Amino acid sequence: MNPFAKLLAISRRKSPWIYTVNSGSCNGCDIEIGPCVSPRYDGEQIGILRQGSPKHADILLVTGAITRRSRQVLLEIYAQIPSPKAVVAIGSCPASGNVFVGSPTIDGPLDKWIPVDVWVSGCPPRPQVIIAGIAQAAQLLAEGGTADQKRKAKP
Amino acid sequence: MMAAIWQYVFAILVWPGLVGAAALGFFYLWIARKLIARLQGRKGPPLYQPFFDFVKLLGKETAVPRGVNTALFYALPYLALAATLFGLVIVPVPGHAVDSFPGDIILLLYLLEVPVICDVMAGYVSQSIYGQVSAMREAVMSLAYNVPLLAAVIAMAQNAGSFRIGTLQSAPFGVVTFLAVIAFAVAIPARLKSNPFSIPNAEQEIVAGAHTEYNSAPLGIFELSHALEVVLLFDTFFVLFVPHFGSVLANAALYVLVSLGLIVLVTLAAATTARLTVKRAFRFYWVWGGLAAAAAMVVAIIG
């Protein structure tokens, strides 16, 4: 690995900028994401910054059970994030549908639509676990291990 | 001849240009973030955070929005960066002697204004409604804070009887300096788009302002040019108002101390205030900034 690639890898690990999408969540997980950058949990120590525009983000946090209404928006926002990017599914809903399973209005799980790199479990997960999930996604970005990077690397 | 060219190349790329100013600028931005974090009871980001953010942005793929002029989209951040670099090179800072020429302070003021114009154009070019709102606000704010900023410089020039940075630097300290420092310092937060004048980039309110559609390397270059702008503005403050010593070491120490003092003051103002509306900020600059400016001008002309 040449020094520039090494520096870039370190930078990707140290600077995860996040963007959050609520795809039909009950808002519980979104409330738990807020404290990640609050005085108590202070994600800025590992470089986490919440961005207002998906074009500035590296990591997409998805909450909720992917309702039919939010599906298209989710796909568009995922497409707007510049590569390399990672996706972290927050909570049980994107993984399984949770209590909404069987509902005709949801169309999950999340990895049916976009590749997911890290699953954070819980209903809702605690902020510590969300920060750990973001750190793990940042580590994957540094190693080139995200689904997006693997797809790009294929000839 | 060759030696002179190499000197220019060194000045633009190393000190006081790209490498040196970027290191200083990123350091000041880190101090701002760290101080805000400490004031909020957080630990805050590590020292190298702005640098890693910048390198990461350089390593991402760039997406140009559909219907946007690609050449202009890429050119604007580099234009802002280049203008700031040339501005840094014509300012005599410790360890960098410049042959001062008549009117170089005017050139410096123009170069200081180029990044602002680039931001305004970036807002309109990117065709995002947030960018357009931000561009409009930035243009209005530029009309507001330039009243005290320009008046402070003109008063100092009137006092020293010259528009040369060299003469301004050796002008004696007096009442005009005191009034001009107030007028200039009042303009700094608005020029750096920090609270309570973070009106053009108003985060959370109009997403990321003029940079909403910018991403990856062009965004990184904008961040770098912002870091250099901080250094250039503090340089301008330094040469205009801070007394010049014979020893390089004493000058360098003073230079760092003054810059640190300014960034701490700007950050304290940012951490303790909420964003103003455009109308109130405009009124603030035209009334209070204008008063300080008028006082400095009157004293400069009479005294």
Walkthrough of the structure:
The complex is a heterodimer of chains A (155) and B (303). By secondary structure, chain A is an alpha/beta fold. Chain A has one domain: 3-Layer(aba) Sandwich (Rossmann fold). In chain A, 38% of the residues lie in helices and 14% in strands. Chain A has helices at 3-14, 28-33, 68-80, 93-96, 127-143, 147-153; strands at residues 17-22, 49-50, 59-63, 86-90, 118-120. A five-stranded parallel sheet of chain A has the order 2-1-3-4-5, with helices on both faces. Chain A is globular and about 50 Å long. The two termini of chain A are 20 Å apart. The model of chain A has no long low-confidence stretch (mean pLDDT 90). By secondary structure, chain B is mostly helical. Chain B has one domain (2-302). Chain B is 72% helix and 0% strand. Chain B has eleven helices and no strands. In chain B, helix 2 packs across helix 9, helix 2 packs across helix 10 and helix 6 packs parallel to helix 11 (278-302). The chains are: A alpha/beta (155), B mainly alpha (303). The A-B interface holds A 7-8, 10-12, 14-15, 17, 39, 42, 44-45, 47, 49, 51-53, 55-56, 58, 80, 82-84 and B 33, 37, 40-46, 48-49, 51-53, 55-56, 58-63, 203-204, 207-208, 211-216, 219.
Q: What's this, in brief?
A:
The complex is a heterodimer of chains A (155) and B (303). Chain A is an alpha/beta fold and 155 residues long.
Main sheet: strands, sense, barrel of chain B: none
Distance between the termini of chain B: 44 Å
User: Under the CATH scheme, which class of chain A?
Assistant: Alpha Beta
- Looking at the overall shape, the CATH architecture of chain A is 3-Layer(aba) Sandwich
Q: Could you tell me the radius of gyration of chain B in angstroms?
A: 19 Å
Largest sheet of chain A: 5 strands, parallel
Nearest-angstrom radius of gyration of chain A?
Answer: 15 Å
Shape by Cα distribution of chain A: globular
User: What is the distance, rounded to the nearest whole angstrom, between the alpha carbons of the first and last residues of chain A?
Assistant: 20 Å
Q: Tell me the fraction of residues in β-strands of chain A, as a range.
A: 5-15%
Helices and strands of chain A, in order, run as HEHEEHEHEHH
Number of helical segments with 4 or more residues of chain A: 6
Q: Tell me the helix content of chain A.
A: 25-40%
Shape of chain B: globular
Helix percent of chain B reads: over 70%
Number of domains of chain A: 1
The number of distinct β-strands of chain B equals 0
Mean of the pLDDT scores of chain B? 87
CATH topology of chain A: Rossmann fold
